[in-house]
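Cross-check.
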Amino acid sequence: MGAEPVEPSSDESVMQDLRRQARQAPRIETGERKDLLERSAAGDRASQERLVASNLGMLIQLAEAREDKGLSLPDLVQEGSLGLVEAVRGFTSSDQTDFAAFAKQKIGEKMDAALATEAAAVRDAELLVNAANDYERAELLVARDLHRAPTSTEIAEKLEWTVERTEYVARVVAEARRRHDEELLAFIDPDAIEIDDSVDGE
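Predicted model, tokenized:
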């Protein structure tokens, strides 16, 4: 038997559709572009859509150049499209003379800003995970020394953190533990657990 056909992923399907749209977009001549840009600046939606469609190929290329940097290609195209629309609407009132260069700049700015935001979010998440690990270790150490559950102030002193930061991380840890318990319970089949009701061998 032959190998089963591999279904494209959701992102691949989106990109295939976008590339098809880019190939099918009508070409805009130089003289026509100026007229479309002027009408776009005046708010003509049809002209804006025509210009966006004709530059979709460039938008995809700019997204592909930033692939594997933190965002999917469809997400990059979506962010870049905001820059393309901005370029279409604002080129006439700018002091630029090359629309393609102007559009590339606007598209790149939007994509790079989105990538920077995503990278910052990942860094924040990693820092929070590290902080949660530090908190749990400190909680265990202080509890062992005191032979009781420590207070936030005692854990904060151990970590040399502020009490506010300690309490925030404590809430994060508590929420993570709650979710872990819920996920664990979801895998437990009550009917598969044998409970011995006998007491002291009775």
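DSSP finds eight helices and no strands in the chain. The chain has two domains: 10-117, 121-187. Passed to J.P. for a second look.
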